[in-house]
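Predict the 3D structure for this chain.
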Amino acid sequence: MSIKQFLSQNQYIQVRMDVDSWNEIIEQAAKPLIKGGFVTPEYPQAVINNTIEYGAYYVFDEGIAIPHARPECGVIKDCFSMMTLSHPLSINGSEPVDIIVMFGGVNSDSHITEGIASIVGLLEQEDTLSQIRRATTIDEILGLL
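Done. Predicted structure below.
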């Protein structure tokens, strides 16, 4: 399932959020996925633990973070959430980010191929990223995907 299909059906988008720490970014991005039954409440802590151990390997130069953990860390069903920040913030020493796409895949194949391919397709469109950053409503973001 593509990120657009998933977010259109589930609308797990949070716009212009105010957060104070990188841990809060992870926890906030995971909230709708936990509430929807897509990941366990332990999933965001697994992402945080990975970030502490391995660094913010999921941060890209364009100010985008794609936090995730392995399927066995609490993924129940394939899922995505998207969040934009009101101000860019560094994740554990990374370049500042202001677009976060959290995802979970139930197995390594979907985790790597479908999830990342959907997100990379979105990230390759610089104009779309600029418009996502300026968006103030969920509907605006859905229209851009």
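The mean pLDDT is 90.
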